[in-house]
Specification:
Number of domains: 1
Number of strands: 0
Radius of gyration: 19 Å
Shape: elongated
Largest sheet: none
Distance between the termini: 39 Å
Order of helices and strands: HHHHHH
Number of helices: 6
Length: 107
Amino acid sequence: SMGSGVILKSKVVQPADCLHYALNLPTSVVITGIDKPEILDQAVQAAVTFRPMTPEQVAGLVAKTREVAAHGEYELFKTSQHFDSTAKHPEWLGEESPRVQQLAPAS
């Protein structure tokens, strides 16, 4: 829900905001990425304090993040290879199939 905490560097949202938003989405599981006791405490607190968000609350959170989200600076999974293991290991993809090579020959 926080992209390794990068969005928190914007100083626009708090961890609980992100966790509450993620919990509000129609999902069956939210994986929070707990790597130390403090983060576990934060996740438990967010779960305990969670109440379904109203459309107005969602709109308020989206409005609060709109400016910092506009250019993807804090969404490295969309704008960089930081979270893309395949980009770091292109050999995992193997060769393009003959059909792909036929449709889009390498230039």
